[in-house]
Design goal:
The complex is a heterodimer. Helix content of chain A is 71%, strand content 0%. The relative contact order of chain A is 0.11. Chain A has one domain: Rna Polymerase Sigma Factor, Chain: A. Chain A is mostly helical. Chain B is mainly alpha-helical. Chain B is elongated. At the A-B interface, α2, α3, α6, α7 and α9 of A face α1, α3 and α4 of B.
C-alpha cells in the first residue's frame, strides 16, 4: 500500500515521503483540527505541530497499526492539550467562530442542478455547519470523524481512545443535539 | 423498553450507517411495518446527508510549505543526532579497545608479559586499573551532565 511505503520511507528520513503523506492527509487533518479548535490560526499551528510530532515519533510507530488512526490520535492529543492550556473551559463549550471555506470541488457546478439549487444547498450546509459548531467538542469530533472523514466506528474508537459503545452513544447524542438545535432555530424543518 | 422504542433509538445511528448488520436488518424489518419509525428515519436522513456534504476547509499553500520546511529541519536535526550517537558509540568502543589493549602492552613493557593471564596482580597493575576506572568514571559523569544540560536546552527551545 502507498501509505505503508511512504511510512517506511519516512522512517528512513525521506522528506519526499513526508511530503506525500502531507499531500494525502492535508485536507482531512486540517478540517478535523479546525472542527475541534474552531480558529484557523490555531488549527494551522496544530497542523504543523502534528506533522512535526509524526517526524519525531515515526520510528516508534508500530507498523502493524493503522497510520491514519495514529495520525489523528496525535492530532487529537495535541488539540486537546492546546485547548486545556489556552481555553480550559472550551472542552465542553461550543465554538465561537464556525466559518467554512469552500473547496474547488464544491464550486464545480453539477449539470442536474440550477444555480438556485446550489444556493439553497449552500444555505443548508451553512445552517448545519453553524449548528454543528454550537455542539460540545466530543460531539463535533465524532460527527466530523464519521461524516466528513468517513471513519468506521472502530477507527473512531481508536482515535478517541474510547470503547465502540461510547462512540455509538456519542454519535447518537450528537445527531440528536444537532437535530434539536436545527429544529429550535428553524422550526418546521425550514432549515432544509 | 418495547421493541419499537429500542428500534427508535437506533434510527439516528441507522442514518449514520453506524449499525451492525444484525441491527440494520432489525431496523429495516421494523421500519417496513411502522410508519412512525419510517418517518423518523426519513427525518434523520437529510441531516446525515448534509453532514457528509459539508464544505472541506483547505489548508493554505503557505501552511504546507512552512510545515515541510519545519519538518525538513527536524529531520536534519534527527539525522545529526543519529550521527552524533554513532560517532559516540565508535569513540567509546575505540577507547575501550585501546584501554584493554594497553593492559597487556603495559605488562609487556614492564617485563611481565608472561604472567598476562595469571591471577596475580602487582601493586602497579592494580593502580593502573584503578586509574583507568577513575578516568572512565569521570568521563561518564561529564557525559551524563552534558546530556542532561543538552536535553534541558532542547526543551527550552
Amino acid at each position: 500500500m502507498a501509505v505503508d511505503t511512504d511510512v517506511a520511507r519516512l522512517r528512513r528520513g525521506d522528506l519526499n515521503a513526508l511530503s506525500e503523506l502531507i499531500a494525502r492527509y492535508q485536507n482531512r487533518l486540517y478540517r478535523y483540527l479546525l472542527r475541534i479548535v474552531g480558529q484557523p490560526a490555531e488549527a494551522e499551528d496544530l497542523f504543523q505541530q502534528t506533522w512535526l510530532k509524526v517526524v519525531e515519533k515515526i520510528r516508534s510507530f508500530d507498523e502493524s497499526r493503522n497510520f491514519e488512526g495514529w495520525l489523528f490520535t496525535l492530532a487529537r492529543n495535541l488539540a486537546i492539550d492546546h485547548l486545556r492550556r489556552i481555553r480550559p473551559q472550551s472542552l465542553d463549550e461550543p465554538l465561537a467562530d464556525s466559518g467554512h471555506s469552500e473547496t474547488v470541488a464544491d464550486r464545480i457546478p453539477c449539470k442536474d442542478h440550477t444555480p438556485l439549487d446550489h444556493a439553497l444547498a449552500a444555505e443548508r450546509r451553512t445552517r448545519i455547519g453553524e449548528a454543528m459548531a454550537a455542539l460540545a467538542l466530543i460531539y463535533r469530533e465524532v460527527l466530523t470523524l464519521r461524516f466528513e472523514d468517513e471513519m468506521k466506528i472502530e477507527e473512531i474508537a481508536q482515535v478517541t481512545a474510547v470503547p465502540v459503545s461510547t462512540v455509538k452513544s456519542r454519535l447518537r447524542r450528537s445527531l440528536e443535539q444537532l437535530r434539536y438545535a436545527l429544529e429550535a432555530r428553524y422550526p418546521g424543518g425550514t432549515w432544509q | 423498553m418495547s421493541e419499537h422504542d429500542k428500534i427508535r433509538e437506533l434510527l439516528a445511528l441507522a442514518a449514520a450507517d453506524a449499525l451492525t448488520s444484525a441491527e440494520e436488518k432489525q431496523v429495516a424489518e421494523h421500519v417496513r411495518s411502522c410508519i412512525a419509525c419510517s418517518n423518523e428515519l426519513g427525518a434523520w436522513r437529510p441531516i446525515a446527508s448534509e453532514l457528509r456534504r459539508l464544505p472541506t476547509p483547505q489548508p493554505s499553500s503557505w501552511l504546507l510549505q512552512a510545515t515541510l520546511a519545519r519538518a525538513e529541519s527536524k529531520l536534519a536535526e534527527q539525522a545529526e543526532h543519529d550521527w552524533n550517537r554513532r560517532e559516540m558509540i565508535f569513540v567509546l568502543s575505540f577507547a575501550w579497545l585501546l584501554t584493554i589493549a594497553s593492559w597487556p602492552a603495559f605488562h609487556f613493557v614492564s617485563g611481565r608479559f608472561g604472567s598476562l593471564l595469571g591471577p596475580q596482580f602487582s601493586h602497579t597493575w592494580i593502580s593502573f586499573a584503578a586509574f583507568t576506572a577513575l578516568g572512565w568514571l569521570a568521563g561518564g559523569v561529564a557525559a551524563v551532565m552534558l546530556a542532561i544540560r543538552q536535553r534541558g536546552e532542547r526543551r527550552l527551545a
